[in-house]
Fold:
Amino acid sequence: MNKIKKVVIVGGGTAGWMSAALIKKLLHKQVDVCLIDSELVPTVGVGEASIPPIRAINDVLGIPELDFLNATNASIKLAIKFENWHNEEKCYFHTFGGAGYSSPFCSFQHYWLYAKEVGCHDSFWDFDLNYLAINDDRFSNKTQQDKLRDLPYAYHFDASKYAEMLKLYSTNIGVKHIKSHVNDVRLDKLNYVNNLKLKNGQTISGDIFIDCSGQKGLLIKEALGCEFEDWSDLLLCDRAIALPSKRLSKLPLYTRSIAHKFGWQWQIPLKHRTGNGIVYSSKFASDEDALVVLLKNITEPLDVEPNYIKFKTGKIKTPWCKNVVAIGLSSGFLEPLESTSIYLIQSSIIRLIKLFPHSDINQSLIEEFNRQANLELDAIRDFIVLHYVLNDRKEAFWQTYRTKQLPSSLSHKISLFKESGQVIKDPSDIFTDSSWVQVMLGQGLMPKAYHPRATDFEKERLLNWLNELKLVKHSALKSLEQYPDFLSKCEKGI
Amino acid sequence: MNEPYHIAIVGGGTAGWMTACLLKHAYKALNVNVTLIESKNINTIGVGEGSTPTLKLFFDRLGLDESIWMDKCEATHKLNIRFEDWQGTSEYKHYDHPFISQPDVFHERAYSTNCLTRRLGLEVNTKAEDFFLNASLAKENKHPTPSENFSFKIAYGYHFDAAKLSALLQTVAIDLGVKHISNEVDKVICDDGGYINDLIFNDCSTLNADFFIDCTGFSKKLIKQTLNVPSISFSDNLFNDSAIALKVNSALPVKTQTISTALSSGWQWQIPLQNSTGYGYVFSSRYQSADSAEYELRSRLNLIDNDVSSKLIKFETGQLKEHWRKNCLAIGLSQGFIEPLEATGLHLTYNSILRFIKYFSFFETNSNHIKKFNKTIVNEFELTRDYIVAHYKLNQRSDTDYWRDNRKNNNTPMHLKTLIKAWVNNERLEPYISNSVIKNQFSATSWNCLFAGYGQFNQLASEQPKVGDLYKELKIASFIKGCNLNFIKRE
Structure:
């Protein structure tokens, strides 16, 4: 019996340092952690948007929110605004909140659908506190016990600054940091990684190796040859250009995602700059075409040169293989449409810690890890594909999407909602029912029916109830502070 | 009409709310909905603003008594504009441009004659302040409402706090049934024919309407950004492009006139409100930096070390080539801007709306009507500009390049050239000023006041016959004095 004692992390980007910090923090007594960071390999460092679970990481590590906000130039994110996705004349918000109130047997959208039939003119979002807060430019980070008053939020932040912060944190709690390039990966007879030969001459051995080397997949792909499942047939985009510009004078509480004729553009409002980028398909646009569209839609002066990124969408089917666990881009890549990259890092680390082997790596742990990882990634893939297929844009890129054979898991969800207004939550799906409802409604899929329980209410009572719900949301809204005040308080360190 | 006809006004402010009031009022018997969309985060620093008598016409039209609105807008009556230091010599240190009241109609011809006689070399009175009742009332701070047995109408405009007037017009419009939406327009959707169909807001909600009015100010969100109507710049003639405005909380003793004083690279307004005073300096950033302009203004007002806040306003003078295109009309700053030297902003706004109501039909888009409308409004803007340009062209100051360059500037508009030529040739101006085409435009009297105020005269003849001064012969002084006695001083 060999105790798992030594964890070796390869790669010093967001994935590497987040892994180091969390593993060392939670398995402090049990393992030694060392991180090998090559100065020859630059980090991608584009990731700037997140989803609410990011807050749990800081909680676990004990990083005060204020420190995080100031160190990473973070701003608050309550939603993503999707512009031109349904068609060129429509937009909608995908908020982190939930509209209205769902009773145990009947979700809110059913009540709303029925109310619409009997004369309610409010949109689904008029019952969503996140949406109301965006329009009133208000925010508060105080936790609310009352679900109706809850304002789930995430951050826009500078990922490379966050990696810096985690690096400092990790080395303070005892993570060993080795600055060198991995020249060779040596395997044992069973094809387990035995040790790493570094450029500085050192040989690093370990019990478990975490591959955070990015798309290259130094251990998982190059050394172990694990199979990559290519999704480029289903997700057409394979290029991105990132191009930051100067800070917006007024920071919105949301990320913007703007559909274009051959892809989409992001705009992420940070405190020191604005993250911009365009994601597109090389089959439908040249890099020049994409840059032109991107430049046309950037309003603030530019900060730096454009950064061209090539990527391949898909996943490693066995992100844990033998004694190597791939975390971050090495385990797969999905375009950043729903800001899931950093979440996937976090979720992989948590999964690894939960299933961490005591002694000897056994196959059942590996299988469970991989099963969960695959389900999770498949669910996110379905959610992203959903955005591309529910629309009536006319360009070739979008038309191509609509002729695709969809994964059965996705076509089931779409028809379920269309026929009955129902959304069934997959346990491995990070996105809530509300997220699915918002995107499907926002992109023009109106259900044909709703749950019969929604008609329990008399028409008058239903409309009254909805008005009361709105009043509660508005009173919650008025208790929030003005977002610019919150930001300036943060800057002053209060 | 079964479905109500829907007019959407984009942009609040005085222009937007004035439009809303007038349209809803004009169409009150019809099935017409008027919605005004205003973005939430607008700057509401109140600047003192003046008007012409047109603002009185507006309130009269809506049937709103002065007692209802004046106090709420800190408004005072305006009878006259006094111009200080424009000409540049001590002999013509100031002149008045009064609004012409009914009793003055008797003497407009005499004034015109005196202006001609003086050009011919005879020493006669050409001071507007002596000839016209409004100037005499303004000087004595008298209220323009006479005693009951004096039955002549007095022409006057107002001074008011612009933000407060806008807020007041909002309540009036909402009482009339205008729907108010706070939202920011993100996108404007047109149909294949280029007519505007829908507005999409930042929060993803939408609004459909039949007709759209662009009151978005300099941004011209609909008429220019969407319908691509080009603008014609006036910067060849009007050098000013900036203003610094501030308001102090002390009232002036005389509240009946605006004073416009020429400074080193522009001019300063002084607008008396009920309990405060608005000041501003309109200048050309080519000749003076904003900091230096602010210093000049503050030192004149003894406000150098005072923390009263000021507001820098950047503007472009000019106008749209078409003020109405397809189903979109521009009103207010979006249609054009001429510097506020003669307080013509609301005047042009009001005239444009009324003319629009005259030409507009719910049932058809009549391109002839649109053409006629555009021709008239473009002309009205040009004639207004010409009168303003004359203030710069005729100056005799030589203290700065700004004034010298203005005088030397030969991009003089045609109509103004014609008038200057007529004046120099000792002709009367009346034949050149067609009151029939444009009502309420600057009259021959206004032009005479301007030329005479700038001392555009030949040398006096060596021998003076001591006759021919109609001011004396018609005993105008005692007439004005007699009229004046019917008015009481402001408290």
